[in-house]
Amino acid sequence: MRITIPSIPPSLNSMYLTRGKFRVLSPSARAWKEDTEALLRTLDLPHMEAKPLRVTVCVHRNWLTKDGRVKKADVQNREKALLDVIFPVIGVDDSYVWDLRLIKVQDTEEKTEIEILAL
After folding, report:
1. Beta partners for residue 59, in sequence order
2. What are φ and ψ of residue 107, in 5° steps?
3. Which domain range does residue 60 map to?
């Protein structure tokens, strides 16, 4: 299964706010989650079998500064939001992810490409 989302997931660094003793989604993370869930539901994705899965995530964006140096921006802390929004839609718990690959793609357009395959 291949999915393209025309945005990138929020970073864990900006995903949550602390309200007293509770951690809640930030307004921007909540908006991304709602928009992405709505998009995924329009795609009529098939449900996956509950078996070990390989997930490859390609995060496209401009990862370089104007002078060509790499921006201090992680790809590793974006998978949580992404898996939490996709897996309920495809009917499998994300504990079935056995192989997770995260790839930075230098691009002028922000988007996220996901491939989910049974192992």
Report:
1. 104, 112
2. -155, 155
3. 2-118
Termini Cα distance of the chain: 13
Query: Into how many domains does the chain fold?
Result: 1
38 burial (CB, 10 Å; 0-12 / 13-18 / 19+) is: exposed
Alpha-carbon gap, residue 91 to 70, rounded angstroms = 37
- Whichever domain contains 55, its CATH number is 3.30.1330.70
Give whole-number Cα distances, 9 to 46, 79, 84, in Å. Answer: 22, 7, 11
Evaluate whether 118 touches 49 at the Cβ level (below 8 Å): yes
The DSSP H or E segment spanning 36 is helix 27-42
pLDDT digits (tens, 9 = 90+) for 56-87: 999 999 999 899 898 888 888 889 889 999 99
Please check whether residue 87 is in contact with residue 44, taking contact to mean a CB–CB distance below 8 angstroms.
no
pTM to 2 decimal places: 0.87
pLDDT tens for 9-52 read 998 777 888 888 888 888 888 999 999 999 999 998 888 888 99
Q: Which residue has the tokens 């909540």?
A: 30
